[in-house]
Design brief:
This protein is α+β, with helices and mostly antiparallel strands. It has 9 helices and 11 strands. Strand 4 and strand 5 form a beta hairpin.
């Protein structure tokens, strides 16, 4: 991998190494001397949590979720480890990928226990595939990333009065729509837009920014404590309140707020 390509990849996965992606952040290039440290951190994560391609949540009873597989893919690119990347992606396609191309969220004790996709996981996985295609000179991976991204656009985005937004999952298509700002990734939108040429990625970037701005946005440093736990669960048993710009704010225990966007 060339230095320029490695630097770009390290920048793409820096927040994944920290296990936090900020909804309002913009991608920045890292300093050159951070690339080796980031690769080493990525390798440490892969060595600790990946077992034969499965990213194991050792503190959650040994299950696996699609976000974990996506993190593993991104980190394998950062570590410049195509063999590990292939192992993680092969496990993912064998055990989590659905007929529509999206990824089931949770696997435990030998089978899928929650087949509903989580859009942030599928978005990260699509981005990782495109980055891997570039990094490892693999057209097949790039094509699979574009294909997974198209499935995300088809099944987990929708048009609203403020523009196109990323839904938490395909179960959230009814209006008013559930919206979680922490799922939006401007960097991923850009990677997939350039790889596919699909104008919906630019629409999604603009719509996500508009909806997030309409109700305010925390500084990325203030968001890190919330965590990214079980956020795609079906919207039931939630208590809500009205926010600015006609957005309905709902909060799950331990979760980011989920905004109900009036279409």
């Amino acid at each position: 991998m060339t230095f320029a390509r490695r630097a770009s990849t390290v920048g793409a996965v820096a927040t994944v190494v920290a296990l936090a992606l900020a909804a309002c952040s913009t991608a920045t290039e890292p300093e050159p001397d951070t690339s080796d440290a980031t690769a080493a951190t990525a390798e440490a994560f892969l060595d600790t949590y990946v077992d034969a391609g499965r990213v194991v949540r050792t503190d959650q009873g040994g299950d696996t979720v699609s976000e974990g597989q996506a993190y593993g893919l991104l980190l394998a690119v950062a570590a410049d480890d195509p063999s590990r990347f292939d192992s993680i992606w092969d496990w993912t396609t064998t055990h989590l990928q659905r007929d529509d191309g999206l990824l089931a969220w949770q696997w435990k004790d030998g089978s899928v226990v929650d087949e509903q996709p989580a859009s942030d996981a599928d978005l990260d996985a699509a981005r990782a595939l495109v980055l891997a295609g570039d990094a490892f000179d693999r057209d097949d991976l790039r094509e699979q990333g574009v294909s997974l991204g198209a499935a995300v656009l088809d099944e987990m985005t929708t048009e609203t009065a403020l523009g196109r937004i990323l839904l938490p999952g395909p179960w959230a298509t009814a209006s008013p729509h559930a919206y979680n700002p922490s799922y939006a990734s401007p960097a991923a939108f850009d990677v997939l837009s350039r790889a596919s040429g699909d104008p919906r990625w630019e629409e999604l970037a603009a719509g996500s920014a508009a909806v997030t701005s309409a109700d305010g946005c925390q500084h990325p440093a203030d968001q890190l404590g919330h965590g990214r736990r079980r956020r795609h669960r079906r919207a039931r048993g939630l208590r809500g309140r009205r926010g600015r710009a006609g957005l309905r704010l709902r909060r799950r225990a331990h979760d980011h707020p989920v905004r109900r966007v009036v279409s």
